[in-house]
Prior knowledge:
By secondary structure, the chain is an alpha/beta fold. Helix content is 40%, strand content 17%. It has helices at residues 16-29, 66-76, 91-104, 118-130, 153-169, 178-185, 190-193, 205-209, 236-248, 266-273, 289-298, 317-324, 338-345, 356-369, 386-398; strands spanning 2-6, 34-40, 57-61, 109-114, 134-138, 172-175, 196-198, 221-226, 256-261, 281-285, 301-305, 311-312, 329-332, 336-337, 349-351. Helix 5 (153-169) links the parallel strand 5 and strand 6 (172-175). The longest helix is centred in the middle third of the chain and has 17 residues, at 153-169. The two termini are 14 Å apart. The mean pLDDT is 91.
Amino acid sequence: xxxxxxxxxxxxxxxxxxxxxxxxxxxxxxxxxxxxxxxxxxxxxxxxxxxxxxxxxxxxxxxxxxxxxxxxxxxxxxxxxxxxxxxxxxxxxxxxxxxxxxxxxxxxxxxxxxxxxxxxxxxxxxxxxxxxxxxxxxxxxxxxxxxxxxxxxxxxxxxxxxxxxxxxxxxxxxxxxxxxxxxxxxxxxxxxxxxxxxxxxxxxxxxxxxxxxxxxxxxxxxxxxxxxxxxxxxxxxxxxxxxxxxxxxxxxxxxxxxxxxxxxxxxxxxxxxxxxxxxxxxxxxxxxxxxxxxxxxxxxxxxxxxxxxxxxxxxxxxxxxxxxxxxxxxxxxxxxxxxxxxxxxxxxxxxxxxxxxxxxxxxxxxxxxxxxxxxxxxxxxxxxxxxxxxxxxxxxxxx
Length: 399
């Protein structure tokens, strides 16, 4: 079976969506699937450290640098970066490239991935013109994303119009969690709901196998957060809990240390440097994907921080990466949602973001007793093995 795939985010660009798309292609190819991938052009000025190998036959379509495009759109205003996203300027170049592929090759399926949602608009046009089966894969909700704000009602209305057309004309819809399916598809007829499938993210056992398997030396226990802070995702609740624990145990730094890897706004870095919690925290800045995996291997406890709210429908790929390392996970996340469900079912620790007292007590217990009391299931990762996920993907296509 051969798929024409539209994926703006794809290696050597790094990022969760690019890594997950590439990983699915890699392991589906091991099961005799073929992929031609239309993705963004990478300029010669880009330099990549520890370049990720890309799988499939790659066809690159011209794209402007997204950083400058978004900046210009924000200056102009009028919600331009939400129509449907800043990558919309890639639409015509990618559509032209995809049509050339379709005219010169045979494909069984058109497969589009978001984010960005521009990929699905390309799929919509290709479906209308070439009449092939089309699968639209969503890593995040479109108009139901609680972290996306539309400045104008007409912008939201236009996105709802586009989303509805995609839902109606795609033959199958893929989401990363059942909570996302319920949120997004709940506003549509049951006939559209039946098109929706759940396909989780996966981890890569080969990249773990290549590590040196260095372990933490114990006290002080190493608690690590790997990821970026942006929007409503903030370390402030964890900082407050660390402060509470430190007040109860002034020499806490002898027993436990916190390590942060990824981008962190300067105001949070200043908070670390100007308060007593600096004794317990080390901020390492941004690191490569390979370096982040080394840290996951080294840590005693891995930390996830979601944005606060009543419901969290997102499945960060980081959660699946964490599960692969057989370490206890401490997650600051809403009581209702995908992360809470998956981690609690596997015996990991979940605390509401603003429950600083409970979080502080967990920190103190780890400092006193280590992690042996956390009764988590080391086999929970089996559902996210890439061959299992690729097999699910193949069954979705075949149904």
